[in-house]
Amino acid sequence: MKVAIQGEMGSNSHMAALAMLGNLTGLEIIACTVSAEVMAKVVSGAVDGAVLPIENSLHGSVAEHYDLLLDLPVRIERESLLRVRHNLITAPGVKMEEVRKVMSHPVALSQCRRFLAAHPEFEVAPFYDTAGSVKHVMAEGLRDVAGIAPELAASWYGATVLMTGVEDHEENFTRFHLIRRESDAVEDPAADKMSVAFAIEHRPGTLVAALERLAEVGVDLTKIESRPVPGSPWEYVFYVDGRFDSGEKADIALTALREHCRMVKLLGLYRAA
Length: 273
What we know:
The chain is α/β, with parallel strands linked by helices. The chain has helices at residues 12-21, 35-44, 63-71, 106-110, 113-117, 130-140, 151-157, 206-216, 247-260; strands at 2-6, 28-32, 49-56, 60-61, 74-83, 87-90, 101-104, 123-126, 145-149, 160-163, 173-181, 193-199, 220-229, 232-243, 263-270.
């Protein structure tokens, strides 16, 4: 199975893919620069699926991925949770007092503010990827630069973890989805969660009425997210996640939404992580 991720090998997405699919024989992970490239590979059939983050417990939702899920013929097949742990990583043998610069993805840097504030001697520089910062340190032979990245990045590129757990909050989790082409997605018979996108008429009370339809059939709403409709100022598509205890309830909920909303797209039926 070929699975695409956004980011370098050794990244959190790489770790999530291994955690979700690592028991498969012959798993091949394809690292991509941007998420649009990841999804293009899924749609074209160049890969069998993709593992992409959809939400971080501290940083919030990944808006771009909601847009891609809506626009493309893809389906969420599985969900996982990854405990995010940030580590200070250097070339082997480098000591803390030698570090002059720290690099990482801006989100990772923002989640390590206390550590960075405690070390004002560090120049802090944003980089395109967490694992990519370690890859850069090792490729360039830098002895005074550290990356902040997952532990997997250190082992992948032959670097050393100088300090573990430099993040501000231990309760840092990212939710990932396994995304497949609609024609290839396999529905889990034990599915107890669904993700749906819908649009409503721009009238008072229409959103409340749509959510009431879900409540009436016993779907427990666990998340709601809105995204603007391109070309239609102040109109929105709503993304909801809901839990249910039977597949019949999911079917009834979708039927009820379709009777009330001008657009409904099922993004996935899967087992909650």
